[in-house]
Design a protein that fits this description.
Two copies of one chain form a homodimer. Chain A is an alpha/beta fold and 349 residues long. The first copy, chain A, has two domains: 200 residues, Isopropylmalate Dehydrogenase (3-Layer(aba) Sandwich); 133 residues, Isopropylmalate Dehydrogenase. Helices cover 39% and strands 20% of the residues of chain A. In chain A, strands 2-1-3-12-11-4-5-10-8-9 form a ten-stranded mixed beta sheet, sandwiched between helices. Chain A has a two-stranded antiparallel sheet with strand order 6-7. In chain A, α7 packs parallel to α8. The radius of gyration of chain A is 20 Å and the shape is globular. The structure holds 3-isopropylmalic acid (2 copies). Chains A, B: Its cofactor is Mg(2+); Mn(2+). Chains A, B: Pfam families: Iso_dh (PF00180). Chains A, B: It is an enzyme of class 1 (oxidoreductase). Chains A, B: Belongs to the isocitrate and isopropylmalate dehydrogenases family. LeuB type 1 subfamily.
């Protein structure tokens, strides 16, 4: 048996995770996967002051094939300290240097852009995931005073940038995608020259691919104006965070955006792009599809490609039938929307 | 006479600036304004190695009522060093702490979002403009080696954040707008706690306004999903850069987005949000409207409100008539599109 760590986390994470497990239980893969639940999140953090127990990261790396994660974020935690001590600690501790965030419009009806259909919105963001704005560098002086100075630091290493950029080009090559676009801010920030230089050097090894460079502001604009111009985007941790939420909007909202945190030499972590959505939590109405598509990403990564396809087909069938939650224009609850996916899973076989 | 410094700058800046001056020459304000042209930009930088001459910032501050700026950015300049030495040096040197970027959809036809018309997209971004990611802090170690480490620093001071946030609330109050939204990333970056804390404190002084907080990723998503939820956005220098280009996309593209760099105690600088667009430059086809709307912002700030309204009405009339450049679905050249605005200026009186 291969072990999968299940971490529902905070807020709506608690509601969507059980739905993923219902779906998983119907799939062939479930016979080979042993699920272990972990209660890491705001409640435990508030009770014990601990995000992840000592040694947990190493245990995950050693003993687990994957981590399935819900969401982190809770208004009761000052500054969301636990988000850094749980989710970011896992990404960094497991050295998951690719945050893979596909943005594919799955149905005409879900798109927000005039005149743009499913064929036009289908790009993948390779977000750097172990450095950049998230390293926790910086300092706060005279906190709370009128003279407070708060400094955030963004750190980039050649090795860190290169492996992320290379992963983007490799994926494009392997998946028959033609264009790789870098988003940085090297016109304003000298440190970003490392990104542009590395990108250009790596691009030379992929002469059959088209390497494009846009400053991140222009990239945000062009994703909305001409999403069809993009296949693969490689970018910093912070910019990937912003652009992938923007991408989620273009495919119909946070209820549809999955992600995978990857390093072929470590234990991958899978999570929906959406957060814990405190406003929505506890009402049983959150859209489970992002979590189900995240499950599909996990299955695919673990080698259960057929199971992954089944989940995706069932999700697409439920969307096509309008059997969806309120955010997508339907009337179903979280559980009912999952019921619909399960029915299509049976029908499609 | 009041003096206005005119800096066309690079690329399409050279093409749109003359159009703004043609329009200005037809307005009452032109009788009170003396225009002085400056050739700061990539050409001069490449020739002399100098962005702004010694003492220039002080001269602008002392002797000028305003600066009208085109664009900066040139592929020949490594790392766009001159952008920092010209545009950022002016913003910082003149202490222009508000970068005011209105995002208003001026015509149904220009919108990119399904089911969203002019009434739905009408928000203003208050981008902090004198600190943050643009302070030039950080360092690069072992540049060009396999061990390169590049660190960017983002600096925020209480005073700097507070004056920007306050400007946003004041503007909302003065203009009858109800909602002020902060975009930060305080869940990932402890330094951003300063923004959230300051925002909440300042908000208390404006009990009649609704203060909302979103992490910048969620904000980018919501601007696309529900632009009608926003009136005023206050945010960091970097996030304002990204969000205002996103906003530009929502109102029809870079050809329509003006901006004002403001400090009531200094010499304001006005520039279109679009850059120098090297791909487009020299072909006579760039859209002049962002520059003309920028002129209108300048006129309004200098107290020529009626002139400003005339320019805006003429621009709106040209858009309504479809007398626009290719980016907006028209067929006109830069000069012809300005001709159209000038005709409407005459007609509207
Ligand atoms: C040219 C560049 C340095 C500038 C910025 O990042 O501020 C531009 O993108 C803008 O928004 O005015
Ligand atoms: C919760 C937060 C720290 C996280 C991030 O910024 O990475 C989230 O927004 C995401 O995109 O996964």
């Amino acid at each position: 048996m291969r072990r999968v760590a299940v971490i529902p986390g905070d807020g709506v994470g608690q509601e969507v995770m059980p739905q993923a497990l219902r779906v998983l239980s119907r799939l062939d893969a479930s016979r080979e996967l042993r699920l272990d639940a972990f209660d890491f999140g705001a409640d435990r953090w508030l009770r014990t002051g601990v995000g992840l127990p000592e040694g947990q990261v190493e245990a995950f790396r050693r003993d687990y094939a994957a981590i399935l994660f819900g969401a982190v974020g809770d208004p009761r935690v000052p500054g969301q300290a636990h988000a850094r001590e749980i989710l970011l600690a896992l990404r960094f501790g497991l050295d998951l240097y690719v945050n893979f965030r596909p943005c594919r419009l799955r149905h005409e009806r879900l798109g927000l852009l005039k005149g743009r259909g499913p064929r036009d919105v289908d790009f993948v963001i390779f977000r750097e995931n172990t450095q950049g704005f998230y390293t926790g560098g910086g300092r706060v002086e005279r906190e709370g005073s009128a003279d407070e100075v708060a400094v955030a630091e963004e750190t980039h290493t050649r090795a860190g940038v290169e492996r992320l950029v290379r992963a983007g080009f490799e994926w494009a090559r392997a998946h028959g995608r033609r264009r790789v676009t870098l988003g940085d801010k090297s016109n304003a920030v000298p440190a970003h020259a490392l990104w542009l230089r590395t990108f250009r050097e790596v691009a030379r090894e992929y002469p059959e691919l088209e390497a494009k460079h846009l400053y991140v502001d222009a990239l945000a604009m062009e994703l909305v104006r001409r999403p069809e111009d993009f296949d693969v985007i490689v970018t910093t941790n912070l910019f990937g965070d912003i652009l992938s939420d923007l991408g989620a909007a273009l495919i119909g909202g946070p209820g549809l955006a999955p992600s995978a945190n990857l390093n072929p030499a470590s234990t991958p972590l899978f999570e929906p792009v959406h957060g814990s959505a405190p406003d929505l939590a506890g009402r049983g109405v959150v859209n489970p599809l992002a979590m189900l598509l995240t499950l599909a990403l996990m299955l695919e990564t673990l080698g259960y490609a057929e199971d992954a396809r089944r989940v995706e087909r069932a999700v697409d069938a439920a969307i096509a039938a309008g059997e969806v939650t309120v955010d997508l224009g339907g009337t179903l609850s979280t559980v009912q929307a999952t019921d619909a996916v399960l029915r299509h899973l049976d029908v499609e076989g």
